[in-house]
């Protein structure tokens, strides 16, 4: 079980908590919550959930890669057009997971919600 709660500027409460149900199953889900600072822009308060496909051998790897890529894109690209930035983050994450699976004959499948 992971638990993390932060208060940002007295305005926002963000947190994450994971509960693994059946201990015999692999933990495939990943979560990220945090503040991503952008150069010359207001910081973004971000919550991301990636649900690795449980029937896949590498669902957890796909979920973590999707989150890592999305966070990297959000950190790298600045701008006030948040919807476009989120679309870009999802597209890059999708491409990263696809390439990883192609290069390793894997099945690291995952959903991604930002």
Concise structural overview:
With 114 residues, this protein is α+β, with helices and mostly antiparallel strands. The chain has helices at residues 59-76, 82-104, and strands at 2-8, 12-18, 29-36, 44-51.
List SSEs in N-to-C order.
EEEEHH
For the largest beta sheet, what order do the strands appear in spatially?
1-2
Strand coverage percent: 25-35%
Distance between the termini: 21 Å
Keywords summarizing the entry:
two-stranded antiparallel ribbon; single chain; two-stranded antiparallel sheet; alpha+beta; 114 residues
Explain this structure to me?
This protein has 114 residues and is of the alpha+beta class. The chain has helices spanning 59-76, 82-104, and strands at residues 2-8, 12-18, 29-36, 44-51. Strand 1 and strand 2 form a beta hairpin. The protein contains 2 helices and 4 strands, in the order ββββαα. The chain is flat, with a radius of gyration of 15 Å. Helix 1 (59-76) runs antiparallel to helix 2.
Question: Could you give the topology of this structure?
Answer:
Elements: E1 2-8, E2 12-18, E3 29-36, E4 44-51, H1 59-76, H2 82-104
Antiparallel strand pairs: 1-2, 3-4
């Amino acid at each position: 079980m992971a638990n993390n709660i932060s208060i940002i500027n007295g305005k926002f409460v963000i947190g994450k908590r994971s509960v693994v149900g059946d201990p015999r199953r692999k933990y495939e889900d990943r979560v990220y919550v945090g503040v991503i600072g952008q150069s010359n822009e207001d910081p973004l308060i971000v919550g991301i959930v990636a649900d690795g496909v449980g029937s896949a051998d590498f669902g957890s790897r796909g979920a973590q890669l999707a989150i890592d890529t999305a966070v990297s894109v959000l950190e790298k690209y600045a701008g006030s057009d948040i919807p476009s930035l989120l679309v870009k983050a999802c597209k890059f994450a999708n491409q990263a997971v696809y390439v990883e699976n192609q290069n390793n004959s894997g099945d690291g499948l995952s959903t991604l919600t930002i």
